UniProtKB/TrEMBL annotation:
SUPFAM superfamilies membership: PLP-dependent transferases (SSF53383)
Enzyme Commission code(s) on record: 2.6.1.96
CDD domains per UniProt: OAT_like (cd00610)
Keywords: Aminotransferase, Pyridoxal phosphate, Pyruvate, Transferase
InterPro entries in alphabetical order: Aminotrans_3, Aminotrans_3_PPA_site, PyrdxlP-dep_Trfase, PyrdxlP-dep_Trfase_major, PyrdxlP-dep_Trfase_small
The protein's name in its UniProt record: 4-aminobutyrate--pyruvate transaminase
NCBIfam families, per database record: PRK06105.1
Species per Swiss-Prot/TrEMBL record: Rhizobium soli
Gene Ontology molecular-function annotations: 4-aminobutyrate:pyruvate transaminase activity; adenosylmethionine-8-amino-7-oxononanoate transaminase activity; pyridoxal phosphate binding
Cofactor: pyridoxal 5'-phosphate
Length: 451
């Protein structure tokens, strides 16, 4: 891309350090600047149209340009643009949203607690767990287990939970007391000749061995995404979650389901917790809760978690945690309207109706000479490219990503896996265009590599 002086790209390079970006590459190449969006499409500042095959960052469930969300925000902005939820204060939308979320929860939940990002929600979950263990006179019960390739955010605690090298390397993370157990990606981590059932058994045994090594009385909680997203879209094998949950029960370990991607319909049920029959004590929610039109996240906690924390707050005088914009009335109003749209338009039904086509077209791509594995569930999936001589791991994915962008499809390269997570409003013919473009891009890459 040639960057014109004084263009948006030039000003961006001059003044803006980006999240998750190679800063020197940005200085050289400039950013892709988006200007507007409509439905499943976004348009850059040169007017080029793209299918947003990732819903932004796994978030824009109802699509771009949804006017009902604009109106909900405007109404609330005019009425009460801000009020906080500290020191026994509240505002209408935060109350309504807390009630709605607790009522929607697929397992018994007692309270909702608001934050602004997935990272903060998970950070808060861990702080609640530490506080609760102290409240219960078990100060040694503080260790947390997460998984290799799990993604839970980037704040100091959440980044420690995340099981990816880029979030630890050069940051001196993970923090002590946070451990990572095996990743349930069968194809990548199975032993020679190991059946899926034997693999699941080994994952469960590795978790149990870690708990026993550390001492069960010191392990407080386990966190996991029902389907791993940013780690490469990893759908665990059948039997995995029952085996893991049995061990958590056996050693009295709390379970945090990180529903930040799966929540609000992505896997074909309102929550991943239903798809995989989970019994979490915490659910962390964000992204599709507001289709990311406003930053907001929530934790749902059950009574077993809430009661000791509430008692301790009475003893100390406060639960000393919370952020300025927690339960922000505009964000909460937008989330309520967004959830109403998901329910009224039965977008979960749309996911169920389109999932067979989405998954079968993805599976067909597994037959492409460049591919090694297709995986997914509902309207989330990834195609992994096969290793190739002369290319380091993680080199081919970005090449394919660039070809797709050129052809007007935004996916996401996670190493050599290309992820897809389109808005839940997508229709059948749009899905066909998406996969036709994916396939054509694979052919272009193959030609380039063969030349
Ligand atoms: N959990 C999961 C499962 C996520 O996918 C993400 C974001 N990709 C987060 C937590 C962190 O959310 P945020 O970026 O809003 O902090």
């Amino acid at each position: 891309m040639t960057v014109q002086p004084n263009s948006m790209e030039a000003r961006d390079k001059a003044y803006h350090m980006h999240s998750y970006t190679n800063a020197r590459a940005l200085e050289r190449d400039g950013a892709l600047v988006m200007e507007r969006g409509e439905g499943i499409y976004v348009y850059d500042n040169n007017g080029k149209k793209y299918i947003e095959g990732m819903s932004g960052l796994w978030s824009v469930a109802v699509g771009f340009g949804e006017n009902r969300l604009v109106e909900a925000a405007t109404r609330q902005m005019s009425k009460l643009p801000y009020y906080h939820t500290f020191t026994s204060r509240a505002n209408g939308p935060s109350i309504e949203l807390a009630e709605k979320l607790v009522q929607m929860a697929p397992v018994p939940m007692s309270k909702a607690f608001f934050t602004n990002s997935g990272s903060e929600a998970n950070d808060t979950a861990i702080k609640m767990i530490w506080y609760r263990s102290n409240a219960m006179g078990k100060p040694e019960k503080k260790k947390i287990i997460s998984r290799i390739k799990g993604y839970h955010g980037v704040t100091a605690v959440s980044a420690s939970l995340t099981g990816l090298p880029n979030n630890h390397r050069s940051f001196d993370l993970p923090l002590p007391g946070i451990f990572h157990t095996s990743c349930p990606h069968y194809r990548a981590f199975k032993l020679e000749g190991e059946s899926e059932a034997a693999f699941v058994e080994r994952c469960a045994k590795e978790l149990e061995d870690l708990i026993l090594r550390e001492g069960p009385e010191t392990v407080a909680a386990f966190i996991g995404e029902p389907v791993m997203g940013a780690g490469g879209v990893i759908v665990p094998p059948a039997g995995y979650w029952p085996a893991i949950q049995a061990i958590l029960k056996k050693y009295d370990i709390l379970f945090i389901a990180d529903e930040v991607i799966c929540g609000f319909g992505r896997t074909g049920n309102m929550f991943g917790t239903q798809t995989f029959d989970l019994q979490p004590d915490f659910m962390t929610l964000s992204k599709q809760i507001s289709s990311s039109y406003q930053p907001i996240s929530a934790l749902l906690i059950n009574e077993n978690v809430y009661a000791p924390i509430a008692d301790e707050s009475a003893k100390i005088g406060t639960f000393g945690h919370g952020v300025t914009a927690a339960g922000h009335p505009v964000a909460a109003a937008v989330a309520l309207e967004n959830i109403a749209i998901i329910e009224e338009r039965d977008l979960v039904g749309n996911v169920r109706a389109l999932a067979p086509k989405f998954q079968s077209r993805l599976k067909e791509l597994e037959g492409h000479p460049l591919a090694i594995e297709a995986r997914g569930i509902g309207l989330i999936g990834a195609l992994e490219l096969a290793p190739r001589e002369g290319f380091a791991t993680g080199q081919l994915g970005p090449k394919l990503f660039s070809i797709m962008v050129e052809k007007g499809l935004i996916s996401r390269a996670i190493g050599d896996s290309l992820a897809l997570c389109p808005p839940l409003i997508i229709n059948e013919s749009q899905l066909d265009v998406l996969f036709d473009t994916f396939e054509a891009s694979l052919d272009v890459l193959k030609k380039q590599l063969d030349a």
